[in-house]
Amino acid sequence: MPHHIPPTIFASQIPGKGKGLFTSQAIEAGNLVFSIDHPLVCVPDNDHLNTICYNCFSDDGTRKLKSCMGCKVVRYCSQALSQQYPNIPPSVPRIVMQLLLRRRAGALTETEWIDFLSLQTHLDDFRRNDLEDNGGVTRLQDVIMMSHAAWKFSAVNETSDFVESVTTRTIINSMTASNAALDPLGTCLSTYASQLNHSCDPNCIFTFSGRSLSVRSLQAIPAGGELTISYVDISMSRSERQKKLKSSYYFECACSYCSASLTCGQPDIPESLRVKMSNDEILRLEKEGNRLQALAADAAPEKKAGILDQAVDLFRPYKDIYPIWRYPWPLINYTVELVCIDQGHWLMAFARALKAYFYTEPVHYPLTWHPVRTVRTFVLLKIIFELGYQANQGPDSEQYSAALAKYNIHFPAVIAALVDEIDAAIPNGFGTYSSFAAQFRPCREGTLSQRPHMEKDAWEKERVKLRRLADELVN
Fold first, then answer.
1. Distance (Å, rounded) from C-alpha 364 to C-alpha 336?
2. Is 273 in contact with 237 (CB distance < 8 Å)?
3. Among 90, 163, 182, 184, which is 20 to 30 Å from 368 by CA?
4. Which residues contact 20 (CB under 8 A, 6 or more apart)?
């Protein structure tokens, strides 16, 4: 497992928490802390089995992928790789099967295997948890079914209890592997990175370039400080974060934000809500909003808009007191934005993206170079390019042109400003030579020849126009 871990990064036992990773030397914000070229296991999720290489996790679309010679399901970017691995079916426990098969074949070193077995299993917690999911299956039943599938297809000579412990170790210690734009691609398991503990105010974040995992600092970390990441969406309210962490990882978070009842550095229940609604009323509203958003995310394309309309209507009576950055409103807004993109409603996608750009992301990600904020800005830029095409050459160009004329936006100035924002964010948020930097480079170079001469306050003037458009179209 080639890795690049400075000698200043070390693991240490934490009473009541297991192991954690620390630094013996101060780290400035926006730096690469460590990287791992080849984590123990990386597997694509089922939606990406046909689109990314199972070995290098490349999803650049430049090479034709070849089917595995055994299972005919997974894909590799060379014929040699397609003949190298055994028959692995496209099922949920593929990551467990890969571990078991590699162990049997001697493809895991003794150190790698011992490191994996040292990870927490929480198997007793799984057995005590009798909560059912929407399909009426408990988490333990899910583990048993996945473990049985892994045992059956891998045909290893191991007990069911042992295979279940491998499954629970995998579930608890894995992380989501993503592409340069932070879109989920699959599951990654690194025995070293899994020692990173959780905080709702994390000082680190991980990104991927193919299979390579990088951990970067979001805050200045003092010598002796612990490195932390967030296991959950930091925009969730405190109650939702605690619920998710307890049900998925079996611990109650006592970080500085949870202890002070903060969300993204803001009071978990803002004063505007506290004086108008009881805690129970707020929780019921958020629970229903979260349910509708999740329902829309999984719904058929033709049903998404209707469900999201219900979610928007749910919060409409509270728009003057319910902050737009507060969970689950940002998720609802983002899901609506994605639906608008999918359905080609580019003006509304633009307005939704601007709403997040001005009101949500600065609260959730105060760092202008935060990777998530940077990716969202890149999406906004892509929407502007598509909007420009629709206004000039699309079948509804007159309609788009008329709608935009009202705001008199100077789009070349807007594009230049957003390109500069993203360009300035890359060194700290991703790294100059990251896959995101490579993905963004053609966009930056393509706008250089069209860059207008801009007055000093030109961008501020355009921001006023853009904010007006967002406020009028998204109410």
1. 19
2. no
3. 184
4. 11, 12, 13, 14, 195, 196, 197, 226, 227
Nearest to 170 by CA among 153, 200, 150, 141: 150
Are 447 and 416 spatial neighbours (Cβ–Cβ below 8 Å)?
A: yes
Average pLDDT of the segment spanning 422-444: 95
| Residue 156, CA atoms < 13 Å, CB-side half-sphere | 24
Q: Which two tokens stand for residue 354?
A: 């601007």
Q: In what order do the strands lie in the sheet with 212-217?
A: 3-4, 32-36, 212-217, 204-209
Q: How many CB atoms lie within 10 A of CB 463?
A: 16
**What torsion, rounded to 10 degrees, do the Cα atoms 270, 217, 226, 188 define?**
100
**Per-residue DSSP letter, 27:** B
> In the prediction, which pLDDT does 90 show?
37
Phi, psi (rounded to 5 degrees) for 63: -125, 145
| Strand pairing category for 212-217 and 175-178 | unpaired
**pLDDT tens track for 167-222:** 999 999 999 999 988 998 889 999 999 999 999 999 999 999 988 999 999 999 99
| CB contact at 8 A, 384 and 409 | no
Q: Which residues contact 376 (CB under 8 A, 6 or more apart)?
A: 353, 356, 357, 361
Q: How far apart are CA 409 and CA 219, in angstroms?
A: 36
* 372 Cβ contact list (under 8 Å, min separation 6): 182, 361, 364, 365
Residue 172 near residue 249, CB atoms below 8 Å: yes
Q: What is the DSSP letter of 432?
A: T
Residues 83 and 90: their CA atoms lie apart, in Å, by: 17
Task: Kindly report whether the global pTM for this prediction surpasses the value 0.85.
Answer: yes
The answer to whether residue 129 scores a pLDDT higher than 60 is: yes
Residue with tokens 């049903």: 303
| Prior bond of 89 cis (ω within 30°) | no
Q: Which residues pair with 67 in a beta bridge?
A: 75
CA-atom Rg of the chain in angstroms: 24
The CA angle 360-366-372, to the nearest 5 degrees, is 70
